Amino acid sequence: MVRGKMRTINEKMFLRLAAQRDEAGLLKMDKLRTHLQNVTIDVKDAQRENNAGYKYSIDELRNDVESQLWHATIRAADYFGAPFDAVKAQKAIEKMANDLIEEVRVIVGNQSGVGPYDVKVPGERSEEVMFEIEVSDE
Q1: Structural domain of 63
Q2: Is 61 a member of any domain?
Q3: Does 45 share its domain with 74?
Q4: Is residue 119 classed as helix, strand or coil in its secondary structure?
Q5: By C-alpha distance, which of 68, 62, 66, 93 is closest to 84?
Q6: Could you list the pLDDT tens digit for every one of the 138 residues in the chain?
Q7: Tens digits of residue pLDDT in 34-57
Q8: Phi, psi of 18 (to 5 degrees)
Q9: Using CA atoms, how far apart are residues 95 and 72, in angstroms rounded to an integer?
Q10: Cβ atoms of residues 116 and 53 within 8 Å
Q11: Do the beta carbons of residue 76 and residue 19 sit within 8 Å?
Q12: Is residue 120 part of a domain?
């Protein structure tokens, strides 16, 4: 089986996926463990440092999700042994991609709909909060 090529993920995300994969194995959640195993194999060599500069827009996300859904659509059409209308499939894929992105946004608790890697709009400022702690010898 050929799996889709995935963009990089940060080290923290990779470690969380690996931990959830291992936990799924302990809990005998074999289907979940298998899927997480496949994902961690796909991205094992495609990790980026947690604080590395990275840009990724919502349009790029939609395109990546739609691309993977196209692969799934082709698999299903081949399974059923029937041709399909690509225009109708594209409309369905766009809807599924938007629905999936929205579901994931809710699952991860993102309220704004904007990811941390999204490209800044013209005039938008990027602010970093820094703390200084004074240590006294007293």
Answers
A1: 56-111
A2: yes
A3: no
A4: coil
A5: 93
A6: 344 566 888 999 999 999 999 999 999 999 999 999 999 998 888 888 888 888 889 999 999 999 999 999 999 999 999 889 999 999 999 999 999 999 999 999 988 888 888 877 777 666 555 566 777 776
A7: 999 999 998 888 888 888 888 889
A8: -65, -40
A9: 14
A10: no
A11: no
A12: no
Which positions ≥6 away from 32 have C-beta within 8 Å?
20, 24
- Contact 38/5 with Cβ under 8 angstroms? no
Q: Tell me whether residue 1 is in a domain.
A: no
Q: Examine the domain organization and report whether 107 and 70 are in the same domain.
A: yes
Count up the domains in the chain and report the number: 2
Give the separation between CA 130 and CA 132, rounded to whole angstroms. 7
104 occurs within a structural domain: yes
Predicted pLDDT at 75 = 95
- Give the tokens for residue 6: 């995935």
pLDDT score at 95: 98
Q: What is the pTM of this model?
A: 0.75
Decide: 115 and 62 in contact? Cβ < 8 Å: no
Whether residue 62 sits in one domain with residue 48: no
